[in-house]
């Protein structure tokens, strides 16, 4: 028996909303700086992350409301979010390290569901690391070190969520701790993205 409540499930949508808003802002601000391939990877990856977060929160809501125990929906979370972060990270690193042209080929792979947990953990850490590295690099170019701290907080919170995943998430206390850390991390991510834009992200010159 899982110790979920309707309130807990609804709160689980908050960090998903924070990330979704931040992702859309980044997609709009970086669109003209990215090749079609890099943007496709980044957009696909962030959509995967939002979908995974929504599926997890929806599973909790259905369970808490005693509608059903939709275990297949719950099982989508880890593989989809792991591949999502990896794709988004590759897209951002590609934008920063390679010359971006308007006629670059559209290149994107659909997410694959891996059954190996260590592989998915590696994908998630590598993807998150690449995303935070690129955003910190852009903050550094804008000479806004305070913004870098926000993305570092986000990365550390995500690592903390990875540690908590080893705990018994069927118990309410671990869910509440995880949700608190996730809200803090995604809140820092959203604030960092907003401040990047105000600092001049749209006008920032990258590799051309």
Write up what this structure looks like.
The structure is a single chain. With 208 residues, this protein is mainly α. It has one domain (6-108, 115-199). It contains 7 helices and no strands. Helix 2 (13-30) packs parallel to helix 7 (172-199) and helix 5 packs antiparallel against helix 6 (145-164). It is elongated, with a radius of gyration of 17 Å. The termini are far apart. Residues 102-114 have low confidence and may be disordered.
Instruction: Give Rg in angstroms.
Output: 17 Å
Count the strands?
A: 0
Instruction: Give the helices and strands as they follow along the chain.
Output: HHHHHHH
Largest sheet features: none
Distance between the termini: 55 Å
- Which class do the helix and strand fractions yield? mainly alpha
Give the number of helices. 7
Mean pLDDT: 84
Tally of structural domains = 1
Large-scale geometry: elongated
Low-pLDDT parts are 102-114
Q: What portion of residues belong to β-strands?
A: under 5%
Percent range of helical residues: over 70%
What's this model, at a glance?
It contains seven helices and no strands. It is mainly alpha-helical. It has one domain.
What is this structure's SSE topology?
Layout: H1 6-11, H2 13-30, H3 36-64, H4 71-97, H5 117-141, H6 145-164, H7 172-199
Which keywords apply here?
single chain, 208 residues, mainly alpha, elongated
């Amino acid at each position: 028996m899982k110790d979920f409540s309707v309130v807990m499930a609804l709160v689980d949508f908050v960090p998903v909303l924070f990330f979704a808003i931040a992702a859309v802002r980044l997609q709009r601000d970086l669109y003209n700086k990215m090749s079609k391939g890099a943007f496709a990877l980044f957009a696909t990856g962030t959509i995967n992350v939002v979908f995974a977060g929504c599926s997890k929160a929806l599973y909790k809501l259905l369970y808490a409301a005693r509608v059903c125990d939709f275990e297949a929906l719950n099982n989508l979370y880890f593989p989809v979010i792991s591949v999502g972060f990896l794709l988004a990270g590759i897209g951002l690193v590609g934008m920063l390290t390679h010359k971006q042209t308007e006629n670059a080929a559209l290149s994107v792979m659909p997410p694959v569901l891996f059954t190996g947990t260590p592989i998915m953990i590696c994908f998630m850490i590598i993807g998150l690391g690449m995303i935070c590295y690129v955003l910190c690099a852009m903050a550094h170019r804008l000479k806004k070190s305070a913004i870098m701290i926000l993305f570092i907080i986000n990365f550390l919170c995500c690592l903390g969520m990875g540690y908590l995943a080893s705990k018994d998430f069927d118990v309410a206390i671990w869910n509440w701790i995880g949700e608190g850390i996730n809200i803090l991390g995604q809140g820092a991510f959203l604030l960092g993205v907003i401040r990047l834009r105000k600092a001049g992200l749209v006008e920032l010159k990258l590799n051309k």
